[in-house]
Protein backbone atom coordinates (compact mmCIF):
# COMPACT_ATOMS: atom_id res chain seq x y z
CA UNK A 1 0.00 0.00 0.00
CA UNK A 2 1.33 3.43 -0.96
CA UNK A 3 -0.55 6.65 -0.22
CA UNK A 4 1.22 9.48 -2.10
CA UNK A 5 -1.13 12.15 -0.71
CA UNK A 6 -1.46 12.51 3.09
CA UNK A 7 -4.96 13.91 2.59
CA UNK A 8 -6.41 11.01 0.60
CA UNK A 9 -7.05 7.30 1.02
CA UNK A 10 -5.99 6.84 -2.62
CA UNK A 11 -3.59 3.89 -2.92
CA UNK A 12 -1.09 4.24 -5.76
CA UNK A 13 -1.00 0.44 -6.09
CA UNK A 14 -4.63 0.58 -7.24
CA UNK A 15 -5.77 1.84 -10.66
CA UNK A 16 -6.91 5.43 -11.14
CA UNK A 17 -10.38 6.21 -12.42
CA UNK A 18 -10.16 7.85 -15.84
CA UNK A 19 -13.67 9.27 -16.04
CA UNK A 20 -16.73 9.82 -13.85
CA UNK A 21 -20.32 9.58 -15.05
CA UNK A 22 -22.44 11.55 -12.60
CA UNK A 23 -26.19 11.80 -12.10
CA UNK A 24 -27.17 14.34 -9.47
CA UNK A 25 -30.63 15.24 -8.23
CA UNK A 26 -30.78 18.58 -6.42
CA UNK A 27 -33.19 18.48 -3.46
CA UNK A 28 -33.49 21.96 -1.97
CA UNK A 29 -36.09 20.96 0.62
CA UNK A 30 -33.81 18.28 2.11
CA UNK A 31 -30.62 20.22 1.26
CA UNK A 32 -28.92 17.23 -0.30
CA UNK A 33 -27.79 15.78 -3.59
CA UNK A 34 -29.13 12.37 -4.55
CA UNK A 35 -26.26 10.93 -6.54
CA UNK A 36 -25.16 8.10 -8.75
CA UNK A 37 -21.56 7.91 -9.93
CA UNK A 38 -19.94 5.43 -12.27
CA UNK A 39 -16.15 5.35 -12.10
CA UNK A 40 -14.59 4.22 -15.38
CA UNK A 41 -11.07 2.80 -15.17
CA UNK A 42 -10.39 2.14 -18.84
CA UNK A 43 -8.83 -1.25 -18.19
CA UNK A 44 -9.77 -4.48 -16.44
CA UNK A 45 -8.70 -4.96 -12.84
CA UNK A 46 -9.80 -6.57 -9.60
CA UNK A 47 -9.17 -6.43 -5.88
CA UNK A 48 -9.68 -3.75 -3.23
CA UNK A 49 -10.46 -0.19 -4.36
CA UNK A 50 -10.17 2.65 -1.84
CA UNK A 51 -12.17 5.85 -2.34
CA UNK A 52 -12.50 9.03 -0.29
CA UNK A 53 -15.83 9.96 1.26
CA UNK A 54 -16.92 12.40 3.95
CA UNK A 55 -20.41 12.41 5.40
CA UNK A 56 -21.89 10.54 2.44
CA UNK A 57 -24.80 8.10 2.79
CA UNK A 58 -23.61 5.19 0.62
CA UNK A 59 -26.67 3.26 -0.58
CA UNK A 60 -25.48 0.68 -3.12
CA UNK A 61 -22.24 -0.40 -4.80
CA UNK A 62 -22.41 -2.47 -7.97
CA UNK A 63 -20.10 -3.65 -10.73
CA UNK A 64 -21.62 -4.12 -14.20
CA UNK A 65 -21.84 -7.83 -14.98
CA UNK A 66 -21.45 -8.79 -11.31
CA UNK A 67 -24.26 -6.93 -9.54
CA UNK A 68 -23.87 -5.81 -5.91
CA UNK A 69 -20.38 -6.24 -4.44
CA UNK A 70 -18.95 -6.11 -0.93
CA UNK A 71 -17.96 -2.75 0.50
CA UNK A 72 -17.25 -1.15 3.85
CA UNK A 73 -16.75 2.31 5.30
CA UNK A 74 -13.74 2.75 7.54
CA UNK A 75 -13.52 4.68 10.77
CA UNK A 76 -14.26 8.38 10.39
CA UNK A 77 -11.27 10.72 10.51
CA UNK A 78 -11.93 14.39 11.28
CA UNK A 79 -9.75 15.53 8.36
CA UNK A 80 -9.87 12.70 5.84
CA UNK A 81 -13.43 11.48 6.30
CA UNK A 82 -14.06 7.77 5.75
CA UNK A 83 -12.36 5.32 3.44
CA UNK A 84 -14.82 3.47 1.22
CA UNK A 85 -13.25 0.10 0.40
CA UNK A 86 -14.86 -1.85 -2.43
CA UNK A 87 -14.02 -5.45 -3.32
CA UNK A 88 -13.93 -5.33 -7.11
CA UNK A 89 -14.25 -8.65 -9.02
CA UNK A 90 -11.41 -9.49 -11.40
CA UNK A 91 -11.94 -8.30 -14.97
CA UNK A 92 -14.01 -5.26 -13.99
CA UNK A 93 -13.68 -1.86 -15.66
CA UNK A 94 -16.40 0.15 -13.90
CA UNK A 95 -17.83 0.64 -10.41
CA UNK A 96 -21.28 2.21 -9.81
CA UNK A 97 -22.27 3.83 -6.50
CA UNK A 98 -25.55 5.40 -5.40
CA UNK A 99 -25.41 7.78 -2.48
CA UNK A 100 -26.68 11.02 -0.93
CA UNK A 101 -24.72 13.94 0.47
CA UNK A 102 -24.82 14.72 4.17
CA UNK A 103 -26.07 17.73 6.08
CA UNK A 104 -22.52 18.88 6.88
CA UNK A 105 -21.07 18.53 3.37
CA UNK A 106 -18.30 21.14 3.34
CA UNK A 107 -18.30 21.17 -0.47
CA UNK A 108 -21.86 22.50 -0.61
CA UNK A 109 -23.60 25.64 0.57
CA UNK A 110 -27.38 25.74 0.35
CA UNK A 111 -28.78 29.28 0.38
CA UNK A 112 -32.28 30.36 1.27
CA UNK A 113 -33.94 32.80 -1.16
CA UNK A 114 -33.29 35.76 1.16
CA UNK A 115 -29.53 35.08 0.92
CA UNK A 116 -29.60 35.73 -2.84
CA UNK A 117 -29.82 39.00 -4.73
CA UNK A 118 -33.26 38.24 -6.16
CA UNK A 119 -34.66 36.80 -2.91
CA UNK A 120 -37.19 34.63 -4.76
CA UNK A 121 -35.47 31.24 -5.20
CA UNK A 122 -32.91 29.09 -3.38
CA UNK A 123 -29.32 28.68 -4.54
CA UNK A 124 -26.65 25.99 -4.33
CA UNK A 125 -22.94 26.21 -5.02
CA UNK A 126 -19.98 23.92 -4.44
CA UNK A 127 -16.41 24.59 -3.32
CA UNK A 128 -14.28 21.44 -3.48
CA UNK A 129 -10.82 22.87 -2.82
CA UNK A 130 -8.93 21.95 -0.69
CA UNK A 131 -10.17 18.36 -0.07
CA UNK A 132 -13.96 18.62 -0.10
CA UNK A 133 -14.97 16.84 -3.33
CA UNK A 134 -15.32 13.71 -1.17
CA UNK A 135 -18.30 15.28 0.57
CA UNK A 136 -20.03 15.70 -2.81
CA UNK A 137 -19.08 12.46 -4.60
CA UNK A 138 -17.15 9.31 -3.63
CA UNK A 139 -13.89 9.54 -5.56
CA UNK A 140 -10.11 9.41 -5.45
CA UNK A 141 -9.96 12.89 -3.96
CA UNK A 142 -6.35 13.75 -4.72
CA UNK A 143 -4.88 15.89 -7.52
CA UNK A 144 -2.75 12.91 -8.58
CA UNK A 145 -5.87 11.08 -9.82
CA UNK A 146 -7.13 13.34 -12.61
CA UNK A 147 -10.50 12.53 -14.17
CA UNK A 148 -12.66 13.57 -17.10
CA UNK A 149 -16.38 13.62 -16.35
CA UNK A 150 -19.89 13.65 -17.73
CA UNK A 151 -22.85 14.76 -15.65
CA UNK A 152 -26.64 14.99 -15.62
CA UNK A 153 -28.05 17.40 -13.05
CA UNK A 154 -31.79 17.48 -12.35
CA UNK A 155 -33.07 20.71 -10.78
CA UNK A 156 -36.44 22.37 -10.10
CA UNK A 157 -37.95 23.97 -13.20
CA UNK A 158 -37.04 27.65 -13.40
CA UNK A 159 -33.54 27.15 -12.04
CA UNK A 160 -30.37 26.72 -14.08
CA UNK A 161 -27.39 24.45 -13.41
CA UNK A 162 -23.82 25.22 -14.46
CA UNK A 163 -20.68 23.15 -13.94
CA UNK A 164 -16.93 23.18 -14.54
CA UNK A 165 -17.64 21.52 -17.88
CA UNK A 166 -19.07 22.24 -21.28
CA UNK A 167 -22.87 22.24 -21.68
CA UNK A 168 -24.21 19.17 -23.50
CA UNK A 169 -27.92 19.97 -23.73
CA UNK A 170 -30.88 20.31 -21.40
CA UNK A 171 -34.57 19.44 -21.40
CA UNK A 172 -37.71 19.85 -19.35
CA UNK A 173 -38.84 16.59 -17.77
CA UNK A 174 -42.47 17.66 -17.43
CA UNK A 175 -42.80 17.06 -13.69
CA UNK A 176 -41.53 20.39 -12.43
CA UNK A 177 -37.97 19.25 -13.04
CA UNK A 178 -35.35 20.14 -15.62
CA UNK A 179 -32.21 18.20 -16.50
CA UNK A 180 -28.91 19.77 -17.60
CA UNK A 181 -26.11 17.72 -19.16
CA UNK A 182 -22.39 18.47 -19.14
CA UNK A 183 -19.14 17.09 -20.49
CA UNK A 184 -15.57 17.75 -19.37
CA UNK A 185 -13.34 15.83 -21.80
CA UNK A 186 -10.02 16.92 -20.29
CA UNK A 187 -8.68 15.28 -17.12
CA UNK A 188 -8.94 17.55 -14.07
CA UNK A 189 -8.13 17.11 -10.38
CA UNK A 190 -11.17 16.36 -8.23
CA UNK A 191 -11.00 19.73 -6.45
CA UNK A 192 -12.04 21.35 -9.75
CA UNK A 193 -15.39 19.56 -9.81
CA UNK A 194 -17.90 22.39 -9.51
CA UNK A 195 -21.67 22.86 -9.55
CA UNK A 196 -24.00 25.82 -9.04
CA UNK A 197 -27.79 25.97 -9.28
CA UNK A 198 -29.96 29.08 -9.08
CA UNK A 199 -31.83 31.77 -10.99
CA UNK A 200 -29.13 32.51 -13.52
CA UNK A 201 -28.77 34.54 -16.68
CA UNK A 202 -25.79 34.90 -19.00
CA UNK A 203 -24.23 37.64 -21.09
CA UNK A 204 -21.71 36.93 -23.84
CA UNK A 205 -18.47 38.92 -23.57
CA UNK A 206 -16.76 37.40 -26.62
CA UNK A 207 -17.17 34.28 -28.78
CA UNK A 208 -15.47 32.21 -26.06
CA UNK A 209 -16.26 34.12 -22.86
CA UNK A 210 -19.51 34.60 -20.99
CA UNK A 211 -20.54 35.76 -17.54
CA UNK A 212 -23.38 34.22 -15.52
CA UNK A 213 -25.09 35.81 -12.54
CA UNK A 214 -28.49 36.34 -11.00
CA UNK A 215 -30.72 38.49 -13.24
CA UNK A 216 -30.39 41.38 -10.81
CA UNK A 217 -26.60 41.58 -11.17
CA UNK A 218 -25.80 40.13 -14.60
CA UNK A 219 -25.68 43.52 -16.36
CA UNK A 220 -23.27 44.93 -13.76
CA UNK A 221 -21.13 41.80 -14.04
CA UNK A 222 -21.04 42.01 -17.84
CA UNK A 223 -19.90 45.64 -17.63
CA UNK A 224 -17.29 44.93 -14.94
CA UNK A 225 -15.69 42.05 -16.85
CA UNK A 226 -16.14 43.36 -20.40
CA UNK A 227 -12.38 43.34 -20.97
CA UNK A 228 -11.86 39.64 -20.28
CA UNK A 229 -11.17 38.72 -23.93
CA UNK A 230 -8.27 41.16 -24.06
CA UNK A 231 -6.99 39.58 -20.85
CA UNK A 232 -7.18 36.10 -22.44
CA UNK A 233 -5.27 37.34 -25.50
CA UNK A 234 -2.54 38.84 -23.32
CA UNK A 235 -2.27 35.59 -21.36
CA UNK A 236 -2.05 33.54 -24.56
CA UNK A 237 0.77 35.75 -25.82
CA UNK A 238 2.70 34.87 -22.67
CA UNK A 239 1.79 31.23 -22.05
CA UNK A 240 0.41 29.75 -25.26
CA UNK A 241 -3.06 28.89 -26.56
CA UNK A 242 -5.87 28.84 -24.00
CA UNK A 243 -6.35 25.11 -23.31
CA UNK A 244 -9.98 24.86 -22.09
CA UNK A 245 -12.08 26.00 -25.11
CA UNK A 246 -14.26 28.47 -23.18
CA UNK A 247 -13.65 30.92 -20.36
CA UNK A 248 -16.98 31.44 -18.64
CA UNK A 249 -17.50 33.04 -15.23
CA UNK A 250 -20.19 32.85 -12.56
CA UNK A 251 -20.75 35.66 -10.05
CA UNK A 252 -22.01 33.98 -6.89
CA UNK A 253 -23.95 35.30 -3.90
CA UNK A 254 -21.86 37.14 -1.28
CA UNK A 255 -21.42 34.16 1.06
CA UNK A 256 -18.89 32.62 -1.37
CA UNK A 257 -15.79 32.23 0.83
CA UNK A 258 -13.09 33.09 -1.73
CA UNK A 259 -12.34 35.87 -4.19
CA UNK A 260 -12.48 33.37 -7.01
CA UNK A 261 -12.16 29.68 -7.77
CA UNK A 262 -10.50 28.62 -10.99
CA UNK A 263 -12.97 25.90 -12.00
CA UNK A 264 -12.17 25.22 -15.68
CA UNK A 265 -14.75 26.53 -18.16
CA UNK A 266 -16.65 28.16 -15.24
CA UNK A 267 -14.62 30.38 -12.91
CA UNK A 268 -16.54 31.15 -9.70
CA UNK A 269 -16.26 34.78 -8.51
CA UNK A 270 -17.30 36.75 -5.45
CA UNK A 271 -19.74 39.64 -6.05
CA UNK A 272 -17.39 41.89 -4.07
CA UNK A 273 -15.48 42.26 -7.35
CA UNK A 274 -18.36 44.33 -8.75
CA UNK A 275 -16.80 47.61 -7.65
CA UNK A 276 -18.46 49.62 -10.40
CA UNK A 277 -15.15 50.92 -11.77
CA UNK A 278 -13.37 47.72 -12.97
CA UNK A 279 -10.73 48.26 -10.29
CA UNK A 280 -10.80 44.67 -8.99
CA UNK A 281 -10.56 42.66 -12.19
CA UNK A 282 -7.07 41.53 -11.17
CA UNK A 283 -8.81 38.63 -9.43
CA UNK A 284 -10.07 37.54 -12.85
CA UNK A 285 -6.50 37.75 -14.13
CA UNK A 286 -5.48 35.43 -11.30
CA UNK A 287 -8.20 32.87 -12.01
CA UNK A 288 -7.53 33.08 -15.75
CA UNK A 289 -3.81 32.46 -15.16
CA UNK A 290 -4.78 29.28 -13.31
CA UNK A 291 -5.94 27.93 -16.68
CA UNK A 292 -2.25 27.24 -17.27
CA UNK A 293 -0.65 27.28 -13.81
CA UNK A 294 -2.76 25.04 -11.59
CA UNK A 295 -5.35 23.55 -13.91
CA UNK A 296 -3.08 22.46 -16.77
CA UNK A 297 -0.10 21.70 -14.50
CA UNK A 298 -1.27 20.90 -10.98
CA UNK A 299 0.25 20.33 -7.56
CA UNK A 300 0.34 16.61 -6.73
CA UNK A 301 -1.02 17.31 -3.25
CA UNK A 302 -1.73 20.28 -1.03
CA UNK A 303 1.79 19.91 0.37
CA UNK A 304 2.96 21.38 -2.95
CA UNK A 305 0.26 24.08 -3.14
CA UNK A 306 2.83 26.73 -4.03
CA UNK A 307 3.21 25.15 -7.48
CA UNK A 308 -0.38 26.19 -8.14
CA UNK A 309 -0.52 29.54 -6.42
CA UNK A 310 3.02 30.90 -6.55
CA UNK A 311 3.20 30.45 -10.31
CA UNK A 312 -0.31 31.88 -10.69
CA UNK A 313 0.39 35.06 -8.70
CA UNK A 314 3.52 35.58 -10.79
CA UNK A 315 1.53 34.91 -14.00
CA UNK A 316 -1.30 37.21 -12.88
CA UNK A 317 1.14 40.09 -12.39
CA UNK A 318 2.77 39.39 -15.73
CA UNK A 319 -0.67 39.69 -17.37
CA UNK A 320 -1.46 42.91 -15.48
CA UNK A 321 1.92 44.34 -16.42
CA UNK A 322 1.19 43.81 -20.12
CA UNK A 323 -2.25 45.40 -19.66
CA UNK A 324 -1.44 48.33 -17.36
CA UNK A 325 2.34 48.79 -17.15
CA UNK A 326 5.14 48.47 -14.61
CA UNK A 327 3.63 50.81 -12.00
CA UNK A 328 0.47 48.71 -11.76
CA UNK A 329 2.53 45.54 -11.38
CA UNK A 330 4.64 47.13 -8.63
CA UNK A 331 1.49 48.10 -6.72
CA UNK A 332 0.29 44.51 -7.04
CA UNK A 333 3.54 43.22 -5.57
CA UNK A 334 3.24 45.77 -2.74
CA UNK A 335 -0.28 44.61 -1.87
CA UNK A 336 0.95 41.05 -1.98
CA UNK A 337 3.82 41.91 0.38
CA UNK A 338 1.31 43.17 2.95
CA UNK A 339 -0.70 39.93 2.66
CA UNK A 340 2.51 37.90 3.03
CA UNK A 341 3.60 39.82 6.13
CA UNK A 342 0.16 39.32 7.70
CA UNK A 343 0.32 35.56 7.08
CA UNK A 344 3.87 35.26 8.42
CA UNK A 345 2.72 37.06 11.58
CA UNK A 346 -0.28 34.73 11.92
CA UNK A 347 1.96 31.67 11.79
CA UNK A 348 4.79 33.08 13.92
CA UNK A 349 4.32 30.19 16.37
CA UNK A 350 3.95 27.61 13.57
CA UNK A 351 6.99 28.29 11.36
CA UNK A 352 6.62 24.91 9.63
CA UNK A 353 3.57 26.39 7.88
CA UNK A 354 5.64 29.22 6.38
CA UNK A 355 7.78 26.99 4.13
CA UNK A 356 6.73 26.25 0.55
CA UNK A 357 7.44 22.49 0.61
CA UNK A 358 5.06 21.72 3.46
CA UNK A 359 4.64 18.52 5.45
CA UNK A 360 0.95 18.31 6.29
CA UNK A 361 0.45 14.79 7.64
CA UNK A 362 -2.27 15.15 10.29
CA UNK A 363 -2.90 18.83 9.44
CA UNK A 364 -6.08 20.03 7.76
CA UNK A 365 -4.98 21.89 4.61
CA UNK A 366 -7.68 24.48 5.26
CA UNK A 367 -5.95 25.29 8.56
CA UNK A 368 -2.64 25.74 6.71
CA UNK A 369 -4.18 28.01 4.07
CA UNK A 370 -2.58 31.46 3.85
CA UNK A 371 -0.97 33.94 1.47
CA UNK A 372 2.42 32.27 1.90
CA UNK A 373 2.21 29.76 -0.98
CA UNK A 374 0.90 32.61 -3.14
CA UNK A 375 3.31 35.41 -2.32
CA UNK A 376 6.44 33.62 -1.13
CA UNK A 377 5.98 31.21 -4.03
CA UNK A 378 5.59 34.07 -6.51
CA UNK A 379 8.80 35.64 -5.24
CA UNK A 380 10.70 32.41 -5.88
CA UNK A 381 9.34 32.33 -9.44
CA UNK A 382 10.24 36.00 -9.92
CA UNK A 383 13.73 35.38 -8.54
CA UNK A 384 14.26 32.65 -11.14
CA UNK A 385 13.01 35.00 -13.86
CA UNK A 386 15.41 37.73 -12.75
CA UNK A 387 18.29 35.26 -12.59
CA UNK A 388 17.97 33.87 -16.13
CA UNK A 389 16.30 36.81 -17.89
CA UNK A 390 12.75 37.45 -18.96
CA UNK A 391 12.89 35.99 -22.47
CA UNK A 392 14.63 32.79 -21.44
CA UNK A 393 12.29 32.33 -18.49
CA UNK A 394 9.15 32.68 -20.60
CA UNK A 395 10.53 29.97 -22.92
CA UNK A 396 11.13 27.83 -19.84
CA UNK A 397 7.56 28.37 -18.63
CA UNK A 398 6.15 27.24 -21.98
CA UNK A 399 8.41 24.18 -21.95
CA UNK A 400 7.25 23.45 -18.39
CA UNK A 401 3.58 23.64 -19.42
CA UNK A 402 4.18 21.37 -22.40
CA UNK A 403 6.19 18.83 -20.43
CA UNK A 404 3.61 18.43 -17.65
CA UNK A 405 0.41 19.20 -19.56
CA UNK A 406 -2.65 17.70 -17.81
CA UNK A 407 -0.53 16.13 -15.08
CA UNK A 408 0.00 16.70 -11.35
CA UNK A 409 3.55 17.08 -10.05
CA UNK A 410 5.61 17.50 -6.89
CA UNK A 411 8.12 20.16 -5.92
CA UNK A 412 10.86 17.60 -6.54
CA UNK A 413 9.67 17.06 -10.12
CA UNK A 414 9.61 20.80 -10.74
CA UNK A 415 13.11 21.24 -9.33
CA UNK A 416 14.49 18.41 -11.46
CA UNK A 417 12.93 19.94 -14.58
CA UNK A 418 14.20 23.44 -13.69
CA UNK A 419 17.71 22.14 -13.08
CA UNK A 420 17.71 20.39 -16.46
CA UNK A 421 16.44 23.45 -18.34
CA UNK A 422 18.03 26.23 -16.25
CA UNK A 423 21.21 24.67 -14.85
CA UNK A 424 22.38 26.34 -11.66
CA UNK A 425 19.46 28.78 -11.41
CA UNK A 426 17.85 27.16 -8.36
CA UNK A 427 21.11 27.29 -6.44
CA UNK A 428 21.82 30.84 -7.59
CA UNK A 429 18.56 32.12 -6.08
CA UNK A 430 18.91 29.89 -2.99
CA UNK A 431 15.67 28.07 -3.78
CA UNK A 432 16.01 25.86 -0.72
CA UNK A 433 15.58 28.92 1.50
CA UNK A 434 12.15 29.46 -0.05
CA UNK A 435 11.19 25.80 -0.16
CA UNK A 436 12.36 24.53 3.21
CA UNK A 437 13.14 27.44 5.53
CA UNK A 438 10.59 29.56 7.45
CA UNK A 439 9.91 33.16 6.59
CA UNK A 440 11.00 35.09 3.52
CA UNK A 441 14.65 34.98 2.41
CA UNK A 442 16.48 38.28 2.75
CA UNK A 443 17.49 38.00 -0.90
CA UNK A 444 13.90 37.87 -2.18
CA UNK A 445 13.20 40.25 -5.08
CA UNK A 446 11.93 43.74 -4.30
CA UNK A 447 9.58 45.53 -6.65
CA UNK A 448 9.96 49.30 -6.67
CA UNK A 449 8.62 52.21 -8.66
CA UNK A 450 8.67 55.96 -8.17
CA UNK A 451 4.91 55.84 -7.64
CA UNK A 452 5.17 53.15 -4.96
CA UNK A 453 8.08 54.91 -3.25
CA UNK A 454 6.05 58.13 -3.09
CA UNK A 455 3.06 56.39 -1.50
CA UNK A 456 5.31 54.64 1.01
CA UNK A 457 7.06 57.86 2.00
CA UNK A 458 3.76 59.69 2.40
CA UNK A 459 2.27 56.96 4.60
CA UNK A 460 5.42 56.81 6.73
CA UNK A 461 5.15 60.56 7.37
CA UNK A 462 1.65 60.20 8.84
CA UNK A 463 2.70 60.12 12.50
CA UNK A 464 4.75 63.27 11.98
CA UNK A 465 1.73 65.03 10.52
CA UNK A 466 2.22 64.28 6.83
CA UNK A 467 -1.03 64.29 4.84
CA UNK A 468 -1.74 63.90 1.12
CA UNK A 469 -2.86 67.08 -0.58
CA UNK A 470 -6.22 67.48 -2.25
CA UNK A 471 -4.43 67.50 -5.60
CA UNK A 472 -2.69 64.19 -4.82
CA UNK A 473 -5.93 62.62 -3.64
CA UNK A 474 -7.78 63.68 -6.78
CA UNK A 475 -5.22 61.93 -9.00
CA UNK A 476 -5.04 58.62 -7.16
CA UNK A 477 -6.34 55.42 -8.69
CA UNK A 478 -8.01 52.85 -6.40
CA UNK A 479 -4.87 50.69 -6.16
CA UNK A 480 -2.83 53.69 -5.01
CA UNK A 481 -5.33 54.48 -2.26
CA UNK A 482 -5.34 50.84 -1.17
CA UNK A 483 -1.55 50.73 -0.91
CA UNK A 484 -1.50 54.04 0.97
CA UNK A 485 -4.01 52.72 3.52
CA UNK A 486 -2.05 49.48 3.88
CA UNK A 487 1.15 51.37 4.65
CA UNK A 488 -0.36 53.62 7.33
CA UNK A 489 0.38 52.88 11.01
CA UNK A 490 -1.84 50.04 12.23
CA UNK A 491 -2.98 51.96 15.30
CA UNK A 492 -4.61 55.26 14.33
CA UNK A 493 -6.49 57.70 16.52
CA UNK A 494 -10.18 58.42 16.09
CA UNK A 495 -9.18 61.85 14.78
CA UNK A 496 -7.01 60.16 12.15
CA UNK A 497 -9.97 58.03 11.11
CA UNK A 498 -12.24 61.04 10.86
CA UNK A 499 -9.70 62.83 8.64
CA UNK A 500 -9.33 59.82 6.34
CA UNK A 501 -13.06 59.33 5.95
CA UNK A 502 -13.67 63.02 5.32
CA UNK A 503 -11.01 63.31 2.63
CA UNK A 504 -11.45 59.93 0.92
CA UNK A 505 -15.17 59.27 1.49
CA UNK A 506 -14.19 55.78 2.58
CA UNK A 507 -17.42 54.68 4.21
CA UNK A 508 -19.29 54.64 0.90
CA UNK A 509 -16.65 52.89 -1.20
CA UNK A 510 -17.81 50.14 -3.56
CA UNK A 511 -14.29 48.74 -3.86
CA UNK A 512 -14.20 46.18 -1.05
CA UNK A 513 -10.39 46.06 -0.95
CA UNK A 514 -10.34 49.74 0.00
CA UNK A 515 -13.46 49.52 2.16
CA UNK A 516 -12.24 46.59 4.25
CA UNK A 517 -8.73 48.05 4.61
CA UNK A 518 -10.35 51.22 5.93
CA UNK A 519 -12.82 49.43 8.21
CA UNK A 520 -9.97 47.33 9.63
CA UNK A 521 -8.12 50.52 10.59
CA UNK A 522 -11.32 52.00 12.01
CA UNK A 523 -12.10 48.86 14.05
CA UNK A 524 -8.59 48.82 15.52
CA UNK A 525 -9.03 52.48 16.49
CA UNK A 526 -12.43 51.82 18.13
CA UNK A 527 -13.86 54.42 15.75
CA UNK A 528 -17.57 54.26 16.51
CA UNK A 529 -18.89 56.02 13.36
CA UNK A 530 -17.62 53.01 11.36
CA UNK A 531 -19.47 50.40 13.45
CA UNK A 532 -22.68 50.37 11.37
CA UNK A 533 -20.70 49.89 8.15
CA UNK A 534 -18.60 47.14 9.76
CA UNK A 535 -21.78 45.40 10.85
CA UNK A 536 -23.27 45.74 7.37
CA UNK A 537 -20.21 44.24 5.65
CA UNK A 538 -19.82 41.35 8.09
CA UNK A 539 -23.50 40.46 7.90
CA UNK A 540 -23.48 40.42 4.10
CA UNK A 541 -20.05 39.26 2.93
CA UNK A 542 -18.58 35.80 3.59
CA UNK A 543 -15.22 36.18 1.83
CA UNK A 544 -12.55 34.89 4.21
CA UNK A 545 -10.00 37.43 3.03
CA UNK A 546 -12.20 40.16 4.55
CA UNK A 547 -13.59 38.33 7.57
CA UNK A 548 -10.24 37.44 9.14
CA UNK A 549 -8.77 40.98 9.35
CA UNK A 550 -12.05 42.67 10.23
CA UNK A 551 -12.94 40.33 13.07
CA UNK A 552 -9.29 40.37 14.11
CA UNK A 553 -9.24 44.17 14.32
CA UNK A 554 -12.37 44.10 16.47
CA UNK A 555 -10.40 42.25 19.16
CA UNK A 556 -8.68 45.38 20.47
CA UNK A 557 -11.13 46.52 23.16
CA UNK A 558 -13.92 45.00 25.28
CA UNK A 559 -16.47 47.07 23.37
CA UNK A 560 -15.34 45.94 19.92
CA UNK A 561 -14.95 42.32 21.07
CA UNK A 562 -18.55 42.35 22.22
CA UNK A 563 -19.58 43.86 18.89
CA UNK A 564 -17.71 41.12 17.01
CA UNK A 565 -19.41 38.33 18.97
CA UNK A 566 -22.80 39.94 18.50
CA UNK A 567 -22.30 40.29 14.73
CA UNK A 568 -20.99 36.72 14.38
CA UNK A 569 -23.98 35.30 16.24
CA UNK A 570 -26.25 36.94 13.67
CA UNK A 571 -24.06 36.34 10.61
CA UNK A 572 -22.84 32.81 11.28
CA UNK A 573 -25.85 30.91 9.85
CA UNK A 574 -25.30 32.64 6.51
CA UNK A 575 -21.55 32.02 6.31
CA UNK A 576 -20.03 29.12 4.41
CA UNK A 577 -18.63 26.45 6.72
CA UNK A 578 -15.06 27.41 5.79
CA UNK A 579 -15.72 31.05 6.68
CA UNK A 580 -17.40 30.07 9.93
CA UNK A 581 -14.31 28.11 10.98
CA UNK A 582 -12.03 31.05 10.24
CA UNK A 583 -14.08 33.48 12.31
CA UNK A 584 -14.41 31.02 15.19
CA UNK A 585 -10.62 30.71 15.33
CA UNK A 586 -10.28 34.51 15.41
CA UNK A 587 -12.84 34.88 18.21
CA UNK A 588 -11.18 32.10 20.22
CA UNK A 589 -7.90 34.03 19.98
CA UNK A 590 -9.54 36.99 21.77
CA UNK A 591 -9.31 35.10 25.06
CA UNK A 592 -6.09 33.20 24.34
TrEMBL record:
<dbReference type="InterPro" id="IPR038502">
    <property type="entry name" value="M1_LTA-4_hydro/amino_C_sf"/>
</dbReference>
<feature type="binding site">
    <location>
        <position position="286"/>
    </location>
    <ligand>
        <name>Zn(2+)</name>
    </ligand>
</feature>
<dbReference type="InterPro" id="IPR015211">
    <property type="entry name" value="Peptidase_M1_C"/>
</dbReference>
<feature type="binding site">
    <location>
        <position position="309"/>
    </location>
    <ligand>
        <name>Zn(2+)</name>
    </ligand>
</feature>
<keyword id="KW-0479">Metal-binding</keyword>
<feature type="domain" description="Peptidase M1 leukotriene A4 hydrolase/aminopeptidase C-terminal">
    <location>
        <begin position="450"/>
        <end position="587"/>
    </location>
</feature>
<feature type="binding site">
    <location>
        <position position="290"/>
    </location>
    <ligand>
        <name>Zn(2+)</name>
    </ligand>
</feature>
<dbReference type="GO" id="GO:0006508">
    <property type="term" value="P:proteolysis"/>
</dbReference>
<dbReference type="GO" id="GO:0005829">
    <property type="term" value="C:cytosol"/>
</dbReference>
<comment type="similarity">
    <text>Belongs to the peptidase M1 family.</text>
</comment>
<dbReference type="InterPro" id="IPR034015">
    <property type="entry name" value="M1_LTA4H"/>
</dbReference>
<dbReference type="InterPro" id="IPR001930">
    <property type="entry name" value="Peptidase_M1"/>
</dbReference>
<feature type="binding site">
    <location>
        <begin position="543"/>
        <end position="545"/>
    </location>
    <ligand>
        <name>a peptide</name>
    </ligand>
</feature>
<dbReference type="InterPro" id="IPR027268">
    <property type="entry name" value="Peptidase_M4/M1_CTD_sf"/>
</dbReference>
<dbReference type="InterPro" id="IPR042097">
    <property type="entry name" value="Aminopeptidase_N-like_N_sf"/>
</dbReference>
<dbReference type="GO" id="GO:0016285">
    <property type="term" value="F:alanyl aminopeptidase activity"/>
</dbReference>
<dbReference type="GO" id="GO:0008237">
    <property type="term" value="F:metallopeptidase activity"/>
</dbReference>
<protein>
    <recommendedName>
        <fullName>Aminopeptidase N</fullName>
        <ecNumber>3.4.11.2</ecNumber>
    </recommendedName>
</protein>
<feature type="active site" description="Proton acceptor">
    <location>
        <position position="287"/>
    </location>
</feature>
<feature type="active site" description="Proton donor">
    <location>
        <position position="374"/>
    </location>
</feature>
<keyword id="KW-0378">Hydrolase</keyword>
<dbReference type="InterPro" id="IPR016024">
    <property type="entry name" value="ARM-type_fold"/>
</dbReference>
<feature type="binding site">
    <location>
        <begin position="257"/>
        <end position="262"/>
    </location>
    <ligand>
        <name>a peptide</name>
    </ligand>
</feature>
<dbReference type="Pfam" id="PF01433">
    <property type="entry name" value="Peptidase_M1"/>
</dbReference>
<keyword id="KW-0963">Cytoplasm</keyword>
<feature type="binding site">
    <location>
        <begin position="127"/>
        <end position="129"/>
    </location>
    <ligand>
        <name>a peptide</name>
    </ligand>
</feature>
<dbReference type="InterPro" id="IPR049980">
    <property type="entry name" value="LTA4H_cat"/>
</dbReference>
<keyword id="KW-0862">Zinc</keyword>
<dbReference type="InterPro" id="IPR045357">
    <property type="entry name" value="Aminopeptidase_N-like_N"/>
</dbReference>
<keyword id="KW-0645">Protease</keyword>
<dbReference type="Pfam" id="PF09127">
    <property type="entry name" value="Leuk-A4-hydro_C"/>
</dbReference>
<dbReference type="Pfam" id="PF17900">
    <property type="entry name" value="Peptidase_M1_N"/>
</dbReference>
<keyword id="KW-0482">Metalloprotease</keyword>
<dbReference type="InterPro" id="IPR014782">
    <property type="entry name" value="Peptidase_M1_dom"/>
</dbReference>
<dbReference type="GO" id="GO:0008270">
    <property type="term" value="F:zinc ion binding"/>
</dbReference>
